[in-house]
Amino acid sequence: MNSDSLIQWFTKSLLADPQKTAITFLRDGSVETTVTGRELERDALRMAGTFLGMGVAKGDRV
């Protein structure tokens, strides 16, 4: 059995093909927009940088 956590599995999947769709947003059952792994990583890093700039540290509740 593989001991990877869900986050580790998801990260490996995104890194394997960063141009592949990672998230699909639906509205009324139809695709509204999609986000690639590369876009998701970019946005997550941007958000992390914003939180760090605000003084949010590991363990803080957001």
Give structural attributes.
62 residues, alpha+beta, two-stranded antiparallel ribbon, 2 helices, 2 strands, 45% helix, extended
Content-based structural category: alpha+beta
Alpha carbon gyration radius? 15 Å
Spell the H/E element sequence. Answer: HEEH
**Which residues sit in consecutive blocks of at least 5 with pLDDT less than 50?**
none
What gap, in angstroms, lies between the N and C termini? Answer: 34 Å
**What fraction, in percent, of the residue positions are helical?**
40-55%
* Sheet of most strands: 2 strands, antiparallel
- Spatial arrangement of strands, main beta sheet: 1-2
Percent strand equals 15-25%
Q: What is the number of helical segments per DSSP (H or I, 4+ residues)?
A: 2
* Morphology call: extended
**Overall tally of structural domains:** 1
What is the number of strand segments? 2
Mean pLDDT: 91
Short description:
The protein has 62 residues and is α+β, with helices and mostly antiparallel strands. The protein contains two helices and two strands.
